């Protein structure tokens, strides 16, 4: 019995131990399970919280403004948050970067009011008004040829007395000029006196008529010898013959030529003096061949005298019958209306002739960004002051400080007249369509692509095989100005002095030396005139002749640089056709000509900017290499070579 109870007790203890162990196990396991569950929840909450914070960072916070970035308009890859910092490459002031959705297919850009104020963006409306072509010409004053009087000797003899003995003397009508001793005159007067005596004698009727005829012939002979009717009557009344004749001035004027001195012997018909009416003047202007269609006889113009600065009006009365072979100009004579003004022959004058062209759409000349034949303007979008869109337009003629618009704009639209280049730089930075990269994704800053032509993309960058091109080179080339130049039209040897003088002009301008440019420009125009140009290159010759004959009159280096731009367009066209020796580098500066850009040629790849000189000597890029006639075999490969040289600043 005791044993049974002991067994029961042992069994109960065992059960209790098992129960206790189970309870303890559950007790120990439950906290662990609960802790794991809590940890899972906590981790889940942490993940959700992290996601929430991340979303909050990407969401717009109306109370936190994103930091404004600033960039260089010429090197837009540089960014800074400090508006007072300068570009480390060129030293230019920074401009604010517009914040906008960077849609690579969009040509729209939006600026804040603060950004617009910093960029100083200005707009002007497209207007329709009367267009006037301005033709700038120079010339000098001359005496009106219609008011010139030549005084000649009516009879041969010796100059006994010279009343006017210097050039420039002013005479009035009927003033004595010269007294001539003439034996012929003495004989003629004696014949007159004898004829008068015979006419006064009473004779039969038939003889009386004969005597009167002889008298009339004697009087006529004296008249032909220079005596007036009053002088002839005086001889008859005095009854005395004189061997001297007094020549008087037939009109008032200025003695511009004196051909005799006292004591000289003269023959009948010799010129003694030339008189000019100093109240009747001409302005004689030189008009280049390309501008002749803009002037016509009967046209009224206004011009200024350099000495006084006063405005003078006149009418075109004649155009010279032929073009000057050296200057490639024709003389246009303008009769001056203001005869009461004190004018001097030989005085330098300049005219700005206004030629009416009719009603047309016009925009400021500073509005379009022009590359070759393509022009881009930025138009304000509706009433949104800070939103602008790029638009390609077709330009017509440049009329002073305005451009004619042929298509692409409507009257009243607002175009950016100042700051367009800065807006375009931002689009280039974003890889959106812009002036330099019409398809978008193009170069930024000064990264331009060299090619066979100034505007042709680099072929070698695409791995194009040029061997076929070497065998069949193009026979025509088109420059930025649109001029087409064919090969083998001019002897390249004749153009060598032209290229040499052009390089001297470039050297003078990049050194800011106006005097050296004047010398080089004179050599340049003489070299151009010496070339035997075919008629097919008339457009090139006209471009090269810009400023011909007036280099020594250019007093401003900015004028010289404007002429150099005209010369460069034609020279690039000739170089693209291979008329030069060796290799020439085509350089381009987008800031030249008020942001319109300009190209030039150099013999080496060390970029030196002739449009800015020391101010921004390194501004620009190498757009490509043009091979000359002495290395045509490998010229195409060089032409296709990609030349994106950033020369490190402006």
UniProtKB/TrEMBL annotation:
Composition bias, Basic and acidic residues: 629-650
Signal peptide: none
Domain CusB-like three alpha-helical bundle: 184-242
Domain Heavy metal binding: start-end pairs: 70-97
Cellular component terms per the entry's GO annotation: membrane; outer membrane-bounded periplasmic space
Domain CzcB-like C-terminal circularly permuted SH3-like: 362-423
Region (Disordered): 432-483, 627-650
An example Gene Ontology biological process: plasma membrane copper ion transport
Domain CusB-like beta-barrel: 281-353
Annotated GO MF terms: transition metal ion binding; transmembrane transporter activity
SUPFAM superfamilies xrefs: HlyD-like secretion proteins (SSF111369)
Domain of life from the UniProt record: Bacteria
Family membership: Belongs to the membrane fusion protein (MFP) (TC 8.A.1) family.
Protein name listed in UniProt: Efflux RND transporter periplasmic adaptor subunit
Organism whose genome encodes this protein: Aliidiomarina shirensis
